[in-house]
Design goal:
Number of domains: 1
Bound molecules: fe (ii) ion
Shape: globular
Radius of gyration: 16 Å
CATH topology: Hypothetical protein af1432
Number of helices: 10
Order of helices and strands: HHHHHHHHHH
Mean pLDDT: 96
Number of strands: 0
Amino acid sequence: MAIYQLGRSVFGDPRNNGNLMTIEEANALLEEWVPNERLRLHMKQVAAVMKAWAIEKENADAATALKWELAGLLHDADWEKHPDDHCRVIIEELERRQIDPEVIHCIASHGPKYFGVEPENTMDKMIYVFDELSGLIHAYSLMRPEGYDGMEVKGVKKRLKEKSFAANVSRDDINDALSRINTSLEDIIQFIIDHQSSIR
Ligand SMILES: [Fe+2]
């Protein structure tokens, strides 16, 4: 199993503040880097939830919401082709493209235990909160004949307690992420269900 520690804490260049890419450019990168459709879907779902949270809960303007969305969309972009070097490769690509440091730091901190980078601002904390839960909720939708229709928070919580269900989803990471914010697990689950169910 790879140990991903990045061994650095500063990402990007402050001169690139506000430098973003379009969603079309990010999707083109995903098409090239991520042949696995299910992994692409995972990133699109996290992106949709991140964008919605920025707009609905943080009153983000369009540029800020795009940052949140891009971080979600690209956070696992190198996972399929560089499993032993996960995060480092996409970070260096975004630095090469002179992307806003906040987007890069957000990606670098989406798994503090693995990358050795602590989430700092709200965007960092929320990607960490959403990442694993989004995957578990999607796995749950796949085993329900009705998919997301009628999915309830209590059903998700039940799956969360079942260690064998989506066993690769780290319950420790979910708890650690939630301990860093002031929103309940229940509210986060409902928010994810509401905002990722339509992403295909
Ligand atoms: Fe992820």
